[in-house]
Each structure stands twice: as C-alpha cells, then as structure tokens.
Amino acid sequence: MTLTQQDVVDFLSDLAVEKKLSASSQNQAFNALLFLFKQVLKKDFGEIKGVTRVKRKPCIPIVLSREELS
C-alpha cells in the first residue's frame, strides 16, 4: 500500500470536518504524519495544500467586577 499526499490531505480534513477534533489534535496528527514520513519512511513529506483546518476559538478572559468578588 502506498500512502500519498492526497491520503494525508483527506485524513487531516476528515479530522476537522467529520470528527470535529480541536485544532491542537489536528496539529498533533499532522506532526505525527510528518515524523512518519521523515524518520520512518525516509521520504520527503512535501508541501501539503488543501487541508481543511480547524479554526481556533478565541480565548476570551473572564473578568469579574468588584461587586461579583464580594
């Protein structure tokens, strides 16, 4: 079986769209595939284009008023 760049694109996009994983989980999967290609298979990973990326949710700090603290 041959693993192609399109397989990688499809897998990473599936994580975002179908599995609804977080951005950090998708990034971890991408880095695991990058390690597999470079270190194990000794192949050039190349540039991966067309992956649907998970949008990070903005981190909005919760601020309490002085009245809420009392």
Q: What would a concise description of this structure say?
A:
The chain has helices at residues 5-17, 23-40, 66-69. It is mainly alpha-helical.
Low-confidence stretches: none
The computed structural class is mainly alpha
How big is the Rg?
18 Å
Assembly classification:
single chain
Shape summary: elongated
Number of domains: 1
Distance between the termini: 65 Å
Number of helices: 3
Tell me about the largest β-sheet.
none
Q: What proportion of the residues is helical, as a percent range?
A: 40-55%
Please trace the helix and strand order, writing H or E for each element. HHH
Give the secondary structure arrangement, pairings included.
Layout: H1 5-17, H2 23-40, H3 66-69
Helix pairs in contact: 1-2
Task: Give a written overview of the molecule.
- The termini are far apart.
- The protein contains three helices and no strands.
- The chain has one domain.
- Helix content is 50%, strand content 0%.
